[in-house]
Amino acid sequence: MENKPISENVIQRLPKYYRYLKELCNNQVLRVSSKTISDALHITASQVRQDLSHFGGFGQTGIGYDTEYLKARIQEILGINKVHTAIVIGGGNIGQALISYKGFKEENVFIKAVFDVETSHLSHLLDVDVMPSSRLEEYLEKNPVDIAIISVQKTHAEEMAKRCIACGVKSIWNFAPTDLYFGKSVAVENINMSESLMRLIYKSKDL
Amino acid sequence: MENKPISENVIQRLPKYYRYLKELCNNQVLRVSSKTISDALHITASQVRQDLSHFGGFGQTGIGYDTEYLKARIQEILGINKVHTAIVIGGGNIGQALISYKGFKEENVFIKAVFDVETSHLSHLLDVDVMPSSRLEEYLEKNPVDIAIISVQKTHAEEMAKRCIACGVKSIWNFAPTDLYFGKSVAVENINMSESLMRLIYKSKDL
Question: What is the ipTM of this complex?
Answer without folding.
Answer: 0.91
